[in-house]
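Hello forum,

I keep getting stuck at the same step: I have a sequence, I want structure tokens, and every attempt I make locally crashes halfway through. Rather than fight my setup again tonight, could one of you with a working pipeline run this one for me? It's a single chain of 110 residues.
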Amino acid sequence: MKLITSTAAVILAVAVAATAVAAPAVTREFEGRVASVNRDAKTFRLHDSERGTKRIKVTRGTRFERIDGFAGLRKGQRNIEATVKRKDGGWVAIEVEKSGGGGEHGGDDD
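Reply #2:
Ran it on my machine without issues. Output:
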């Protein structure tokens, strides 16, 4: 009986670990003013009035909307939205855009 209980515990632990690894990264959105840009590290700091200042990494896969790529980010720019995910303890940008472009941001005009 003790062997069966130990085996069941090991199987349960492996199943829980496999589920944790397979879970997709959760995305977040930050919006605010660009506090700084580090061109060498390909990062920028975005001050969100509700969530504080976040350091965000830009990769080759980051999409930009209404901004001329990473080179178009400047300290002091306002209304910048970043959709990010957690990776290795930091925030990585999936998309960075200048808000106010007339797109759909969850509102319903009907």
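The helical segments are 2-22. If your local run keeps crashing, start a new thread with the error log.
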